C-alpha cells in the first residue's frame, strides 16, 4: 500500500469508529439528562372534559401540554381563579387546593399533565330551594405551578358560594370518558 492510501484508510476507520461510538452513547446521554421545571412559554392548557354527577356535583378536567422540544416537570397545584365577563376576579371566591404538595410529573415533548376542579352547582342548589344569589364565571384564569403565565379559558362555572376545590397535577387522567 502507498503511504497516503494507508493514512486515508486509517482516517476513515477512525471516523467510522467515532461515529459508531457516538450512536451507541447518544441514547444513554439523553436518558441521563434530568428535565428542568416547565416554563409558561413551554405550556398550553386545555379543558379536557366535564362531569355532572347527582346532587349538583360538578367536575372539570384540564391538562397542561408541553409544546417544547425538551422534557420538563410540573409539581403541585395550579393557580385557579374565577373571572367575570370583563376579566376581573369575582370577589368572595374560596379556592382550595386539596391534594397536598403532589409529585413531580415529567412531560415529554407533546406530553400532558392533568388536574381537576370540583364544585357544587349553585343552579342546582337554587332548584332545590336554596335562595342564595347564583354567580356564574364567564372565564377562568389558570397558572401552571411554578410559573407566572396566566392562561384564560372560557368558564361557565356556577360554583355554590363560589367555592372550588383544585387537585394537584397528575400524570394520568383517570376520569377520562
Task: Describe this structure as you would to a colleague.
The longest helix is centred in the N-terminal third of the chain and has 30 residues, at 3-32. The chain has two domains: 1-33; 36-166, Immunoglobulin-like (Sandwich), CATH 2.60.40. The protein has two helices and eleven strands; from the N terminus they run H-E-E-E-E-E-E-E-E-H-E-E-E. A hairpin with a 6-residue loop joins strand 9 and strand 10 (150-157). It is elongated and about 100 Å long. The protein is of the alpha+beta class and 177 residues long. The relative contact order is 0.22. It is 20% helix and 37% strand.
Specify the helix fraction band: 10-25%
- The number of helical segments is 2
Tally of distinct domains: 2
**Number of strand segments:** 11
CATH fold descriptor of the largest domain? Immunoglobulin-like
- What spatial form do the alpha-carbon principal axes imply? elongated
Radius of gyration from CA coordinates: 25 Å
The amount of beta strand, in percent, is 35-45%
Which structural traits does this protein have?
single chain; 177 residues; alpha+beta; Immunoglobulin-like; three-stranded mixed sheet; 11 strands
List strands and helices in order, with pairings:
Layout: H1 3-32, E1 36-37, E2 43-52, E3 57-66, E4 72-74, E5 79-83, E6 94-97, E7 105-107, E8 112-120, H2 122-127, E9 137-143, E10 150-157, E11 163-166
Parallel strand pairs: 1-4, 6-11
Antiparallel strand pairs: 2-3, 3-8, 4-7, 5-9, 8-11, 9-10
Task: Summarize this entry quickly.
The protein is of the alpha+beta class and 177 residues long. The protein contains 2 helices and 11 strands, in the order αββββββββαβββ.
Amino acid at each position: 500500500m502507498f503511504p497516503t492510501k494507508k493514512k486515508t484508510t486509517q482516517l476513515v476507520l477512525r471516523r467510522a469508529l467515532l461515529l459508531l461510538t457516538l450512536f451507541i452513547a447518544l441514547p444513554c446521554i439523553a436518558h441521563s439528562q434530568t428535565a428542568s421545571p416547565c416554563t409558561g412559554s413551554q405550556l398550553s392548557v386545555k379543558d379536557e372534559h366535564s362531569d355532572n354527577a347527582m346532587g349538583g356535583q360538578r367536575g372539570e378536567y384540564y391538562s397542561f401540554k408541553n409544546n417544547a422540544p425538551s422534557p420538563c416537570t410540573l409539581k403541585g397545584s395550579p393557580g385557579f381563579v374565577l373571572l367575570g365577563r370583563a376579566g376581573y376576579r369575582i370577589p368572595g371566591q374560596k379556592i382550595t387546593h386539596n391534594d397536598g404538595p403532589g409529585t413531580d410529573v415529567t412531560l415529554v415533548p407533546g406530553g400532558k399533565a392533568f388536574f381537576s376542579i370540583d364544585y357544587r352547582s349553585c343552579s342546582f342548589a337554587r332548584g332545590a330551594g336554596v335562595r342564595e344569589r347564583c354567580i356564574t364565571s364567564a372565564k377562568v384564569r389558570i397558572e401552571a405551578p411554578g410559573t407566572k403565565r396566566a392562561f384564560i379559558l372560557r368558564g361557565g362555572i356556577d360554583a355554590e358560594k363560589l367555592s372550588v376545590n383544585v387537585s394537584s397535577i397528575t400524570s394520568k387522567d383517570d376520569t377520562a370518558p
